[in-house]
Design goal:
It is a single chain. This protein has helices spanning about 10-15, 115-125, and strands at about 1-5, 25, 35, 40, 45-50, 65-70, 90-95, 110, 130-135, 140-145. It is an alpha+beta fold. The longest helix is centred in the first third of the chain and has 9 residues, at about 10-15. The chain is globular and about 40 Å long.
Protein backbone atom coordinates (compact mmCIF):
# COMPACT_ATOMS: atom_id res chain seq x y z
CA UNK A 1 0.00 0.00 0.00
CA UNK A 2 1.01 3.61 -0.52
CA UNK A 3 -0.27 6.40 1.74
CA UNK A 4 -0.64 9.78 0.01
CA UNK A 5 -0.85 13.09 1.85
CA UNK A 6 -2.40 16.11 0.14
CA UNK A 7 -0.58 16.96 -3.09
CA UNK A 8 1.84 19.91 -2.89
CA UNK A 9 0.06 21.71 -5.73
CA UNK A 10 -3.21 21.64 -3.74
CA UNK A 11 -1.49 22.97 -0.63
CA UNK A 12 0.29 25.72 -2.56
CA UNK A 13 -2.92 26.84 -4.23
CA UNK A 14 -4.80 26.92 -0.91
CA UNK A 15 -2.01 28.92 0.74
CA UNK A 16 -1.62 31.42 -2.09
CA UNK A 17 -4.90 31.68 -3.98
CA UNK A 18 -7.49 30.00 -1.83
CA UNK A 19 -9.02 26.66 -2.63
CA UNK A 20 -12.18 27.68 -4.44
CA UNK A 21 -13.77 28.18 -1.04
CA UNK A 22 -12.83 30.27 2.00
CA UNK A 23 -9.51 29.47 3.70
CA UNK A 24 -9.31 30.13 7.43
CA UNK A 25 -5.91 30.75 9.00
CA UNK A 26 -5.47 30.21 12.73
CA UNK A 27 -3.18 29.02 15.49
CA UNK A 28 -3.43 25.35 16.41
CA UNK A 29 -4.82 24.39 19.77
CA UNK A 30 -3.16 21.01 19.31
CA UNK A 31 -4.48 17.77 17.90
CA UNK A 32 -5.77 19.09 14.57
CA UNK A 33 -5.04 16.38 11.96
CA UNK A 34 -2.68 17.94 9.40
CA UNK A 35 -3.18 16.46 5.94
CA UNK A 36 0.07 17.97 4.60
CA UNK A 37 2.46 15.96 6.78
CA UNK A 38 0.06 13.34 8.22
CA UNK A 39 0.45 14.14 11.88
CA UNK A 40 -1.40 16.03 14.59
CA UNK A 41 -0.70 19.74 15.07
CA UNK A 42 1.05 20.89 18.20
CA UNK A 43 -0.24 23.93 20.11
CA UNK A 44 0.90 27.23 18.61
CA UNK A 45 1.52 26.04 15.03
CA UNK A 46 0.15 28.23 12.23
CA UNK A 47 -2.48 26.22 10.39
CA UNK A 48 -5.22 26.67 7.82
CA UNK A 49 -8.59 25.05 7.24
CA UNK A 50 -9.97 24.77 3.71
CA UNK A 51 -12.30 22.71 1.55
CA UNK A 52 -10.76 19.86 -0.39
CA UNK A 53 -12.19 17.43 -2.97
CA UNK A 54 -10.07 14.25 -3.06
CA UNK A 55 -8.95 13.02 -6.44
CA UNK A 56 -11.68 10.90 -8.00
CA UNK A 57 -13.16 10.59 -11.46
CA UNK A 58 -16.25 12.80 -11.88
CA UNK A 59 -19.09 11.03 -10.07
CA UNK A 60 -21.85 11.79 -7.59
CA UNK A 61 -19.56 10.43 -4.86
CA UNK A 62 -16.96 13.19 -5.16
CA UNK A 63 -17.21 15.34 -2.03
CA UNK A 64 -15.67 18.57 -0.78
CA UNK A 65 -14.88 18.64 2.91
CA UNK A 66 -12.77 20.53 5.44
CA UNK A 67 -9.09 19.68 5.96
CA UNK A 68 -6.34 21.16 8.15
CA UNK A 69 -2.81 21.81 6.89
CA UNK A 70 0.13 23.95 7.89
CA UNK A 71 -0.27 27.59 6.84
CA UNK A 72 3.29 27.59 5.49
CA UNK A 73 5.17 24.85 3.62
CA UNK A 74 6.34 22.08 5.94
CA UNK A 75 8.33 18.88 5.75
CA UNK A 76 5.86 16.60 4.00
CA UNK A 77 8.24 13.64 4.13
CA UNK A 78 6.51 10.58 5.53
CA UNK A 79 6.83 6.84 5.14
CA UNK A 80 4.42 6.20 2.26
CA UNK A 81 4.26 2.52 3.23
CA UNK A 82 3.30 3.05 6.87
CA UNK A 83 0.09 4.17 8.51
CA UNK A 84 0.55 7.64 10.10
CA UNK A 85 1.87 7.07 13.63
CA UNK A 86 -0.13 9.91 15.25
CA UNK A 87 -3.34 8.37 13.97
CA UNK A 88 -2.82 4.78 15.12
CA UNK A 89 -5.54 3.78 17.55
CA UNK A 90 -8.16 6.08 16.00
CA UNK A 91 -11.19 4.46 14.45
CA UNK A 92 -11.52 5.51 10.81
CA UNK A 93 -13.82 4.89 7.90
CA UNK A 94 -11.94 3.20 5.05
CA UNK A 95 -14.00 4.24 2.04
CA UNK A 96 -13.09 2.09 -0.96
CA UNK A 97 -13.58 3.36 -4.53
CA UNK A 98 -13.69 1.62 -7.89
CA UNK A 99 -12.18 2.93 -11.15
CA UNK A 100 -15.37 4.91 -11.90
CA UNK A 101 -15.15 6.84 -8.64
CA UNK A 102 -18.05 4.97 -7.08
CA UNK A 103 -18.02 3.79 -3.49
CA UNK A 104 -17.17 0.07 -3.42
CA UNK A 105 -18.88 -2.38 -1.03
CA UNK A 106 -15.50 -3.20 0.57
CA UNK A 107 -15.86 0.08 2.51
CA UNK A 108 -15.72 -0.43 6.28
CA UNK A 109 -14.89 1.12 9.64
CA UNK A 110 -11.79 -0.05 11.49
CA UNK A 111 -11.47 0.33 15.23
CA UNK A 112 -7.90 1.66 15.15
CA UNK A 113 -6.17 -1.44 16.48
CA UNK A 114 -4.82 -2.78 13.18
CA UNK A 115 -5.57 -0.40 10.30
CA UNK A 116 -2.91 -1.98 8.09
CA UNK A 117 -4.67 -5.36 8.19
CA UNK A 118 -8.02 -3.75 7.35
CA UNK A 119 -6.46 -1.81 4.44
CA UNK A 120 -4.64 -4.89 3.15
CA UNK A 121 -7.89 -6.86 3.23
CA UNK A 122 -9.75 -4.19 1.24
CA UNK A 123 -6.97 -3.98 -1.34
CA UNK A 124 -7.24 -7.71 -2.06
CA UNK A 125 -10.36 -6.88 -4.09
CA UNK A 126 -9.09 -6.09 -7.61
CA UNK A 127 -12.01 -3.71 -8.24
CA UNK A 128 -10.80 -1.35 -5.49
CA UNK A 129 -8.45 1.26 -6.97
CA UNK A 130 -8.12 3.53 -3.95
CA UNK A 131 -9.25 4.00 -0.38
CA UNK A 132 -9.90 7.25 1.45
CA UNK A 133 -9.36 7.19 5.18
CA UNK A 134 -11.97 9.42 6.80
CA UNK A 135 -12.70 10.66 10.28
CA UNK A 136 -15.53 8.70 11.89
CA UNK A 137 -17.19 11.60 13.70
CA UNK A 138 -17.00 14.33 11.07
CA UNK A 139 -16.46 12.33 7.87
CA UNK A 140 -13.47 14.48 6.92
CA UNK A 141 -10.91 13.17 4.45
CA UNK A 142 -7.61 12.18 6.07
CA UNK A 143 -5.48 10.61 3.28
CA UNK A 144 -5.59 8.35 0.24
CA UNK A 145 -4.34 4.78 0.04
CA UNK A 146 -3.36 3.08 -3.21
CA UNK A 147 -1.65 -0.16 -4.16
Amino acid sequence: MRIDALPGVVLSKARNEGAGSPVEFSTAEGGEPLRCCLRDATPGEDIMLFGYAPELPPSPYREIGPVFAHAEPCDTTHDENAYPADWLGRPQVLRAYDRDGRIHPATRVHDGTDPTAAITDILTDPDVVQIHSRNVSYGCYMFAIRR
